[in-house]
Structure to design on (873 residues):
């Protein structure tokens, strides 16, 4: 059979909004310009627009046409989003529009469809129902990572999060940096094989004839390319500059570019007399500012790429930027770094940079070689040139009962991280539990994007009719208040139970206290528990014996489940699968300098050996000091917290967001997961630590003991745990970190896990 | 299935379940009234069987009519202070909106 002729369609609606003038618009334009000549294998190359936006002027349209040589233009009847609650309707409508267009105009073509920017305020970009490849450029996941403040307003949250259904439909992702690629893997569970970072480039202003801003002619300029946005860190940067400038007799001017509201300008001007707001400047003026500045500041909390840094590099300027992965990725030796959350660190950074040596031109040259539009287009073209090999199989219909992903139960997080891969093989409906207590219900430690981007229903409403609708119903069972409805439904409509905890007496207690089961039903379960003694489990008998399939994550749990099986002939199929976890696209290997950071992560309870923290900080070592960071959702009593915070070497980070949690975990050197008492349960944070190559110290029993010896350090008691911390510091190597990361990538893949979970006869892993 | 009546009796001597009697009367899917009456001794199989009957009849009936019922429950549990109440009301509104959206979507 002859190969089909291929067509590339780019959704270019972003050019029809204000985005045209912003970074994303410029980015897309430069990219298309370079792509046009590289993609010869396509018979047609088409840019699609909507036909209702009056935004794009004729002049601007000319600019687009000039850049997109070889592309034809189509204006289709896409609708805009005017009321956020209409999103689903408009998405469906727009999908109909593009489906019709392809069916009528390109019926025999193999279509590759790329969305240039998904997150526009009113434009609703969609993928057609059927095409060979669905790809999207991803600029960042910042609103998801910093949902407080970005998604605090409900309007914004709904508008932004709703688009995740289209985002997760994509089968290939083009993030603009390796860091965004890593965010895609860690926050959305997208496998690295579906991600190609394409980077970007400065806007090449070096060749421009510059235009002077006369009022700044004689000033010594520190340039701060910014914007009115939380993540730009404006106030702290100005305060830090003011402190530095005062010491130096106020000889410098801090020049801030981009448009701000009058009110913000007024507020910020109160912080220093020596700031100058340029407002929007022309390209030639901006070139003059870069050329004239002595230092460029870029102290954002987060960015997708960091174009101003590349632009400063183009002008051979010194740059002081925040100590975040995305900037270190550009160059970690010749830029000046500081902690963006600490004003003193910024002041000190400005001082060092102003007095420090000029940038190394060779090293800067290498940066510009990597970051140029030609290279960016090459990376994208390389992926598009290959014909997509994705095979579309009929999908299963699966229902999943789990704690809400925004809650403090780690299971909700696991479910959210597995969503992308599950979506590849199944149509998924979620039944999320909100929890019973107010604390459980109100907690939002991460954004539950599934609430917006997938079919979510009320767990109580699940009935026999619903049951008949699905090929498989998966119940995530743990020992707590987030599993109440799940337990009830698993008992009434048994199917597949994923057992995260082998002791679920606590759960039965909650269910009874809610009046959902009678005291007698509880007593009967207790009686069964007594009659069938299981060493590793509690209150499992009736739940397990009903199911068709039970999934466990450890041999320890497998034993617990098998020991309660009553009728062997009708026993559920019990399968041991290795707990799956997304692999990071990239991991920065760490090595301790003067301080060894010991992390204690995950749910913070006293059983996790928190009293150990004090002893660790007292370890005497010839080369290192030992500091402890405790972070996770806090279940600690106030007096324990008070005791801990007295010790200056212990940092307590209560209920961090996922972004902060991952950041802290990646920065640490040792993860201490020694628990007493420990009941043999699995620990997701241990896998997260290993995924980052960390040395993890664990108990020598239960699930921990089942982990390979080269991955974790097993100890029998507190003294051994303390000794182990010292030993790790003495034998810290990159090779061991890489070995651990590789092991997780190989043996804990989500794809394998889900394909085993959903197959008819699940086989256990060895 | 609609439960008409469920009674559950346990005979307990010395903290041990000797006998479980589940009496239930319910309408099955075809609309016929079914009576369930299971009496058991204290063996594992018997307890399990009686639990199964209980779960199938009692728990499968535990379908609250709509999300509003849950929120009513939640409201009952946590209506201690005005502030708490307001939080729940906000959630309830949210749920109502979802229900509205579901109806709109034809579910």
């Amino acid at each position: 059979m002859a190969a089909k002729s291929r067509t590339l369609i780019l959704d270019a609606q972003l050019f029809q909004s204000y985005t045209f003038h912003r970074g994303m618009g410029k980015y897309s334009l430069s990219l298309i310009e370079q792509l046009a000549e590289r993609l010869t294998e396509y018979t047609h190359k088409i840019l699609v627009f909507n036909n209702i936006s009056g935004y794009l002027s004729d002049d601007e349209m000319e600019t687009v046409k000039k850049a997109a040589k070889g592309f034809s233009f189509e204006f289709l009847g896409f609708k805009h989003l005017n009321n956020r609650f209409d999103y689903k309707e408009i998405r469906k409508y727009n999908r109909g529009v593009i489906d019709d267009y392809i069916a009528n105009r390109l019926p025999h073509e193999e279509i590759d469809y790329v969305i240039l920017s998904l997150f526009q305020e009113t434009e609703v970009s969609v993928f057609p129902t059927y095409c060979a490849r669905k790809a999207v450029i991803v600029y960042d996941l910042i609103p998801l990572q910093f949902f407080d403040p970005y998604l605090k307003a409900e309007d914004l949250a709904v508008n932004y999060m709703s688009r995740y259904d289209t985002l997760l439909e994509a089968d290939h992702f083009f993030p603009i940096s390796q860091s965004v690629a890593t965010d895609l893997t860690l926050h959305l569970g997208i496998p690295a094989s579906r991600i190609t970072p394409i980077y970007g480039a400065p806007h090449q202003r070096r060749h421009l004839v510059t235009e002077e801003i006369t009022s700044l002619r004689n000033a010594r300029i520190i340039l701060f390319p910014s914007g009115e946005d939380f993540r730009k860190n404006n106030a702290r940067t100005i305060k830090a500059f003011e402190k530095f400038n005062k010491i130096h007799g106020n000889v410098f001017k801090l020049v801030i570019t981009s448009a701000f509201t009058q009110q913000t300008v007024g507020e910020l001007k109160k912080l220093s007399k020596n700031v100058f707001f340029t407002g929007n400047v022309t390209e030639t003026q901006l070139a003059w500012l870069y050329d004239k500045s002595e230092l460029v500041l870029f102290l954002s909390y987060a960015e997708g790429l960091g174009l101003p840094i590349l632009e400063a590099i183009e002008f051979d300027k010194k740059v002081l930027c925040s100590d975040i992965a995305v900037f270190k990725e550009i160059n970690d030796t010749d830029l000046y770094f500081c902690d963006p959350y600490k004003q003193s660190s910024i002041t000190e950074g400005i001082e060092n940079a102003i007095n420090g040596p000029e940038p190394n031109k060779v090293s800067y040259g290498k940066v510009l070689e990597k970051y140029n539009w030609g290279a960016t287009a090459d990376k994208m073209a390389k992926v598009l040139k290959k014909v997509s090999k994705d095979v579309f199989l009929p999908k299963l219909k699966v229902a999943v009962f789990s704690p809400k992903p925004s809650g403090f139960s780690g299971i909700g997080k696991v479910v959210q991280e597995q969503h992308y891969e599950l979506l590849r093989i199944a149509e998924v409906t979620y039944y999320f539990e909100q929890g019973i207590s107010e604390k459980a219900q109100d907690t939002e430690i991460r954004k539950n994007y599934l609430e917006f981007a997938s079919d979510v229903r009320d767990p109580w409403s699940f009935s026999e009719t619903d049951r008949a609708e699905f090929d498989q119903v998966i119940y995530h069972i743990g020992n707590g208040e987030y599993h109440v409805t799940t337990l009830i439904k698993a008992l009434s409509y048994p199917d597949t139970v994923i057992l995260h905890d082998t002791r679920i007496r606590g759960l039965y207690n909650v269910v009874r206290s809610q009046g959902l089961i009678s005291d007698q039903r509880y007593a009967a379960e207790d009686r069964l528990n007594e009659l069938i003694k299981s060493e590793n489990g509690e209150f499992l008998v009736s739940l397990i014996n009903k199911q068709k399939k039970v999934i466990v994550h450890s041999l320890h749990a497998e034993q617990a489940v098998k020991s309660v099986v009553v009728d062997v002939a009708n026993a559920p199929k019990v399968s041991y699968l290795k707990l799956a976890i997304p692999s990071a696209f990239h991991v920065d290997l760490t090595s301790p300098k003067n301080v060894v950071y010991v992390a204690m992560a995950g749910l913070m309870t006293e059983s996790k050996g928190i009293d150990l923290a004090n002893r660790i900080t007292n370890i005497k070592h010839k080369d290192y000091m030992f500091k402890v960071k405790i972070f996770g959702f806090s279940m600690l009593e106030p007096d324990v917290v008070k005791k801990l915070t007295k010790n200056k070497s212990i940092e307590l980070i209560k209920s961090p967001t996922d972004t902060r949690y991952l950041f802290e975990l990646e920065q640490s050197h040792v993860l201490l997961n020694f628990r007493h008492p420990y009941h043999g349960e699995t620990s997701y944070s241990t896998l997260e630590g290993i995924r980052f190559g960390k040395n993890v110290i664990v108990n020598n029993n239960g699930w921990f003991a089942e982990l390979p010896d080269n991955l974790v350090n097993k100890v029998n008691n507190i003294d051994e745990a303390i000794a182990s911390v010292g030993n790790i510091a003495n034998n810290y190597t990159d090779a061991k970190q890489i070995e651990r990361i590789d092991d997780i990538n190989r043996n804990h893949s989500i794809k394998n896990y889900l394909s085993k979970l959903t197959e008819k006869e699940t086989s256990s892993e060895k | 299935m609609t439960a008409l009546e469920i009674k559950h009796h346990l005979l307990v001597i010395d903290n041990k379940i000797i006998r479980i009697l589940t009496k239930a009367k319910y309408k099955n899917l075809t609309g016929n009234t079914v009576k369930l009456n299971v009496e058991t001794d204290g063996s594992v199989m018997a307890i399990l069987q009686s639990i199964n009957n209980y779960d199938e009849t009692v728990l499968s009936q535990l379908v609250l009519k709509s999300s509003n019922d849950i929120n009513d429950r939640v409201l009952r549990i946590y209506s201690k202070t005005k502030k708490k109440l307001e939080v729940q009301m906000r959630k309830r509104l949210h749920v109502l909106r979802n229900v509205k959206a579901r109806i709109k979507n034809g579910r």
Notes: Chain B has two domains: 2-61, 67-104. Chain B is about 50% helix and 30% strand.
